Amino acid sequence: MDTTEYFIYLLSCHLNSDKPRGEKRLDWQQIYNLADKHNVTAIIAHEIKKLSDEYRPGGTIGAWFSENLEATRMDFITKLNSLSEFISVLSKAKIEHLLYKGVVLRNLYPVPGLRVGSDADVIVKPADFISAIEVLGQAGFVEKNVKSNIAEMQIAKDNFEIHTEFESINIQSKIYFATPFDDVSDSIDYTYKLKPAYHLLYVIIHIAHHLKTGGVGIRMIMDIDVLIRKYPEININELLRLCENVKIGKTAEVLIALSKKLFNTPVSIHFTFEDEDTQPLLRELTSTVISGNILGNSGTEAEDADNKGNFFKKIFDKISASKNDAKETDTYVNQLLEELEIKEKDTLIS
Question: What order do you get walking across the sheet with 185-188 strand by strand?
């Protein structure tokens, strides 16, 4: 396999708890660059340690992997302490709060401390937003940025984002997640977590939002895998019906199928990337996830806007042009475009 395929393979080994096999003639600099770009360096380093000496990267690159692995482990301890303080402050003030995204998902990974994130996300009720900021400030958390419905706070270099609502991709998803504490969560005292199926729904909505407005990294697809892998009781058909209700049914099918293809996610789903007809879409999506070519790094705002607005149409134009009989594919593509095409009046993200 080539270098990029091996990068994905190592991540798959981690998720499946498989011992990786060695490969020669790999570009370890490229693997390190990819790992750094997607914030999975510690995971790759953890898998590299399982290889025999003849297959491991040596010299400077090998040292970089080892240093990152140790730094990530130490940073995880600090983040746990900060999170404990954060939860304690809000709980003492009797402020209900819902943890989601990375701060919860990392616990589903084989080695939680290696799934890193830039910040911890939490939802509080709108009526508690100001109070949450105040009590955290009194406890030593520093305000970095406060808007009407989101506050960024920091302690010991660890960042927390306090939200009053989930991000949405359309009016249907905004309505669906309007009352997360009442409808879709379990709780321990004042701390809530989304039920697994609804967390997976949110993750898919979150990825769909990024497909429309930015870029999707490999770790987002890994998050789909760990939710399905950790909670086999999730009824995927019911989940897809929920996704259909919030108008992202086809997007959900593609994303789950992509997870299954890349990481052997243990899930049964009607749409797969095993047929020849689906290979163009698989290649384009995988390339986009790996390369990050819509991550807002083209250089100018105008170019970024063009990338965001036309990304999916460009992909699907390629796919349709490569097919002899595109009737069925065009119908599928049109449904995806309808779900993800940017429309100014439908943009609800603040």
Answer: 142-146, 150-155, 158-163, 119-124, 97-100, 191-194, 185-188
d(CA 21, CA 50): 9
Tokens for 211, please give them: 């497909």
Give the pLDDT of residue 294: 42
Two structure tokens written together for 191 = 């701390």
Element (H, E) at 320: helix 301-321
Is the pTM for the entire model greater than 0.85? yes
CA distances from 139 to 36, 93, 163, 291 (A): 34, 11, 19, 41
* Paired tokens of 166: 């989930």
- The two structure tokens encoding residue 28: 């370890």
The structure tokens listed for 37 are 């770009």
Strands (E) in the chain, as ranges, are 97-100, 119-124, 142-146, 150-155, 158-163, 185-188, 191-194
> Whole-angstrom Cα distance, residue 300 to residue 287?
22
d(CA 204, CA 168): 11
CA 157, 158, 164, 170: dihedral to nearest 10 degrees? 100
pLDDT, tens digit (0-9, with 9 covering 90-100), for 56-106: 999 999 999 999 999 999 999 999 999 999 999 999 999 999 999 999 999
Burial class (CB in 10 A: 0-12, 13-18, 19+), 49: exposed
Taken in order 328, 331, 337, 340, the sign of the CA dihedral is: negative
Beta bridge partners of 99: 122, 193
Alpha-carbon torsion angle 34, 38, 39, 40, nearest 10: -70
**Other CB atoms within 10 Å distance of the CB of residue 130:** 12
Q: Which of 49, 58, 38, 57 is nearest to 13 (CA)?
A: 49
Residue 342 pLDDT > 50: no
Residues in the chain: 350
Q: Is 47 helix (H, G, I), strand (E, B) or coil?
A: helix
CB 259 within 8 A of CB 225: yes
- Distance (Å, whole) CA 307 – CA 156: 37
Residue 90, judged by CB atoms within 10 A of its CB (0-12, 13-18, 19+), counts as buried
Nearest to 223 by CA among 100, 80, 348, 86: 100
